[in-house]
Predict the 3D structure of the following.
Amino acid sequence: MNVVAEQPWLWAGLFAYLVATLVAMWGLSPRLVGSESVQSHRHERIVLGAIVLGVLLLTIAIAVRWVRIGHGPWLNLFELLMSQLWSLGLIYALLYWRLPGLRPSAAIVMLVMWILGSWVLILEPADSYFPATYYNVWKWSHVGLGKVFLALLLAGVGLGGVMILRLTERGRRWFRAMPSDGVIDKLAWRLMMLALVFDSLMLITGAVWAQDAWGRYWAWDALETSAFFTWLLLAVGLHIRLSYKVPPWASGVMIISIFVLAFVTYFGMPYVSTVAHKGMV
């Protein structure tokens, strides 16, 4: 595989994310102070700094590719993953900075991020063609809202993972510095409520763009159907959470299930479908 200009910057950004992942995991280990076992928070600045550095390096990678091929990285799977790693890192860094209560869950979130990073490393950085239908403000609103939606889901996955892992003795020890499961559960579903807002707006702007691009608002193609089912599952999950007393671990399972469906919608459907959407997110 030939190395293109943006790849060294991409690799450097992914290395920064790897550092954030490893430091976040290391920070879960309690350390002895005198005769007591305590959990330090000093590593959190390193984690945040590494995420921000990764975002900056990925910004350079995107800019270099943009200049080289003449448009942003929005079409093939390599480009989609690179741009998603950038937006997920940016939004999660803001959440990590502003919501101290979720910081230990970075060990889960950054691990998911680095799985995506490992995937992009094995892809061919092929050039892509920018179709005329993409010159539309509604398309960019659609994409931006979708990126925020996925980042909020990912933050929820971190909290959901904590609630599941706390079923074990080791999980309770790792995440003992976090608030109670009840507090985590409320924060996770507040993120899910925000995610539903952004998902709804994403579907609306996508429909308006589809009308401008192809003369129809909705066609029930593979991607649109999967996106609708993701929205429906999220809405049902919120209804269940608000209407019934759901154990924290079950909340975690619901949140992760929603993320898995969203993941398939974003990173799978556009590339197995032959519809007009193909290659679009």
About this structure: The beta strands are 31-33, 36-38.
